[in-house]
């Protein structure tokens, strides 16, 4: 039943109509229409009746010399015995039988049935909801000369103008089938129209070009209808229009890229890295675009070889020139887009701001460092000055103390010298010159050996002793004894204070 349903669908009829055709072709009588509509299979045939073997022709027995399975015939092995023959009912089946049933039911010849089926198939194709590959046909295109196939728009011929290089192989195949069914010369003849296969040849040529990957690329390379013209400055005055217009331009150009995927133009939120990658890609664009499609036809005859080489050289130069011009065109296009891209200005301003910020930070850091250095230097100078002043004060104080000590020593020396004079040089009467010299000699030796402290100690004792000659002499003797004990004087050097 699945095969019948598929056949009915291909013929454009219902399953019930298909079953009616089959029943009629077999000479069967339809008892109940609901039997067919219910999609119930035919009842099974009754079990076969036993066969009278006397009425059946069977395989003749083997010849008399047939060895069968034996030592003389080792290659023969009986696997099983034949089953008894039975009656089997054979039903016609398949597309050929269904076509036969259709011709018999409608009383058609082979040619009539083929023509009617082709027309019905074309009608079904036209009625299919294929809006995606359906577009109005230009009368001028229908009147094209098939010889001028290079100048025709192959996508428009097949009704794929809105798809162009994006058209899939399946869409091309479907569009070609639809156009062939519509414009086939046989259909025009059957409809009583003038036999003209020029546009049909255009269809075939378009199909040939677009189904050959190499030829299709060559045509796509020169398909100006797929190009998107760059916008003017006025058209992209607004940022939203800039991204929309230029994105369409680069999307069109991206079809020629050997490297996929192609970076997008992006929008105002794109990062600097994304924008830089986009322009780097297009400034180093790797294009497969070629211009062989525009070549002048090279004669294929063996005569005029020089002319043939001339045409080939001319075509090569023309392709090279077009390639150079296309490269320059694309570079200018990228330059124009870059010049109007506000993001570049924004990134430049951000870079300058960052640069100025770093410069300002550097200047502030240098200023701070200089201030700290100046402050440290001033502090060092202040401390040095204070130290110098303190040292000066201390020096002055030391100098005064030293002078004071010196003055004290002088005073004490005077006191010491005066003390012996006050006690009459320790003599009871007027001392002799020798006695005076002896006392003063010991006094000078003491003063020469004693330090200021020892001198001061002696003066203190002399002040206590007053003019008591005995006490004064004892004070001197103790003082000189201390110097002798310290090794500063020799006892033998003293005459009076021993």
From TrEMBL:
<feature type="compositionally biased region" description="Basic and acidic residues">
    <location>
        <begin position="367"/>
        <end position="410"/>
    </location>
</feature>
<feature type="region of interest" description="Disordered">
    <location>
        <begin position="117"/>
        <end position="140"/>
    </location>
</feature>
<dbReference type="GO" id="GO:0030544">
    <property type="term" value="F:Hsp70 protein binding"/>
</dbReference>
<dbReference type="GO" id="GO:0006450">
    <property type="term" value="P:regulation of translational fidelity"/>
</dbReference>
<keyword id="KW-0143">Chaperone</keyword>
<dbReference type="InterPro" id="IPR001623">
    <property type="entry name" value="DnaJ_domain"/>
</dbReference>
<feature type="region of interest" description="Disordered">
    <location>
        <begin position="176"/>
        <end position="195"/>
    </location>
</feature>
<feature type="compositionally biased region" description="Basic residues">
    <location>
        <begin position="176"/>
        <end position="186"/>
    </location>
</feature>
<feature type="compositionally biased region" description="Acidic residues">
    <location>
        <begin position="127"/>
        <end position="138"/>
    </location>
</feature>
<feature type="compositionally biased region" description="Basic residues">
    <location>
        <begin position="307"/>
        <end position="322"/>
    </location>
</feature>
<dbReference type="InterPro" id="IPR058871">
    <property type="entry name" value="Zuotin_N"/>
</dbReference>
<dbReference type="InterPro" id="IPR044634">
    <property type="entry name" value="Zuotin/DnaJC2"/>
</dbReference>
<dbReference type="InterPro" id="IPR042569">
    <property type="entry name" value="RAC_head_sf"/>
</dbReference>
<dbReference type="InterPro" id="IPR036869">
    <property type="entry name" value="J_dom_sf"/>
</dbReference>
<dbReference type="GO" id="GO:0051083">
    <property type="term" value="P:'de novo' cotranslational protein folding"/>
</dbReference>
<dbReference type="InterPro" id="IPR054076">
    <property type="entry name" value="ZUO1-like_ZHD"/>
</dbReference>
<dbReference type="Pfam" id="PF16717">
    <property type="entry name" value="RAC_head"/>
</dbReference>
<dbReference type="InterPro" id="IPR032003">
    <property type="entry name" value="RAC_head"/>
</dbReference>
<dbReference type="InterPro" id="IPR018253">
    <property type="entry name" value="DnaJ_domain_CS"/>
</dbReference>
<protein>
    <recommendedName>
        <fullName>J domain-containing protein</fullName>
    </recommendedName>
</protein>
<feature type="region of interest" description="Disordered">
    <location>
        <begin position="367"/>
        <end position="411"/>
    </location>
</feature>
<dbReference type="Pfam" id="PF26185">
    <property type="entry name" value="Zuotin_N"/>
</dbReference>
<dbReference type="Pfam" id="PF00226">
    <property type="entry name" value="DnaJ"/>
</dbReference>
<dbReference type="GO" id="GO:0043022">
    <property type="term" value="F:ribosome binding"/>
</dbReference>
<dbReference type="GO" id="GO:0005829">
    <property type="term" value="C:cytosol"/>
</dbReference>
<feature type="region of interest" description="Disordered">
    <location>
        <begin position="45"/>
        <end position="72"/>
    </location>
</feature>
<feature type="region of interest" description="Disordered">
    <location>
        <begin position="300"/>
        <end position="326"/>
    </location>
</feature>
<keyword id="KW-0963">Cytoplasm</keyword>
<dbReference type="Pfam" id="PF21884">
    <property type="entry name" value="ZUO1-like_ZHD"/>
</dbReference>
<feature type="domain" description="J">
    <location>
        <begin position="153"/>
        <end position="223"/>
    </location>
</feature>
């Amino acid at each position: 039943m699945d095969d019948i349903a598929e056949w009915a669908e291909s013929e454009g009829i219902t399953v019930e109509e298909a079953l009616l055709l089959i029943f009629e072709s077999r000479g069967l009588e339809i008892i109940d229409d609901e039997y067919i509509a219910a999609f119930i299979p035919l009842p099974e045939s009754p079990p076969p009746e036993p066969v009278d073997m006397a009425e059946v022709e069977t395989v003749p027995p083997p010849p008399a010399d047939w060895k069968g399975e034996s030592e003389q015939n080792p290659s023969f092995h009986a696997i099983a015995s034949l089953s008894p023959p039975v009656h089997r009912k054979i039903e016609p089946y398949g597309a050929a039988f269904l076509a036969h049933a259709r011709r018999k039911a409608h009383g058609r010849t082979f040619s009539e049935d083929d023509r009617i089926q082709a027309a019905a198939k074309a009608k079904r194709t036209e009625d299919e909801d294929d809006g995606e590959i359906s577009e109005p046909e230009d009368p001028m295109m229908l009147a094209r000369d098939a010889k001028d196939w290079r100048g025709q728009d192959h996508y428009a011929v097949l009704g794929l103008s809105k798809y162009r290089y994006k058209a899939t192989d399946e869409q091309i195949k479907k569009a070609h089938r639809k156009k062939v069914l519509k414009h086939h010369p046989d259909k025009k003849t059957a409809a009583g129209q003038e036999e003209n296969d020029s546009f049909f040849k255009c269809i075939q040529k378009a199909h040939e070009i677009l189904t050959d990957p190499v030829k299709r690329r060559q045509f796509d390379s020169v398909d100006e209808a797929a190009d998107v013209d760059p916008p003017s400055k006025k058209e992209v005055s607004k940022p939203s229009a800039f991204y929309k217009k230029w994105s369409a331009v680069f999307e069109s150009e991206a079809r020629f890229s050997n490297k996929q995927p192609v970076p997008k133009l992006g929008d105002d939120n794109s990062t600097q890295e994304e924008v830089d990658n986009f322009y780097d890609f297009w400034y180093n664009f790797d294009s497969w675009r070629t211009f062989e499609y525009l070549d002048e036809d090279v004669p294929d005859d063996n005569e005029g070889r020089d002319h043939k080489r001339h045409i080939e050289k001319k075509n090569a130069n023309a392709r090279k020139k077009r390639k150079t011009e296309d490269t320059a065109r694309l570079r200018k296009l990228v330059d124009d887009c870059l010049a109007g891209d506000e993001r570049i200005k924004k990134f430049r301003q951000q870079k300058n701001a960052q640069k100025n910020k770093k410069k300002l930070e550097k200047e502030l850091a240098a200023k701070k460092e200089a201030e700290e250095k100046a402050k440290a230097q001033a502090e060092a100078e202040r401390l040095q000055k204070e130290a110098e002043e303190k040292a000066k004060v201390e020096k002055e104080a030391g100098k005064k103390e030293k002078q004071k000590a010196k003055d004290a020593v002088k005073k004490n020396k005077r006191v010491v010298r005066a003390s012996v004079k006050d006690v009459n040089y320790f003599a009871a009467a007027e001392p002799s010159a020798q006695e005076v010299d002896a006392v003063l000699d010991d006094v000078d030796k003491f003063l020469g050996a004693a330090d200021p402290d020892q001198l001061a100690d002696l003066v203190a004792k002399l002040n206590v002793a007053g003019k008591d000659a005995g006490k004064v002499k004892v004070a001197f003797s103790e003082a000189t004894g201390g110097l002798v004990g310290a090794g500063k004087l020799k006892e033998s050097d003293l005459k009076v204070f021993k």
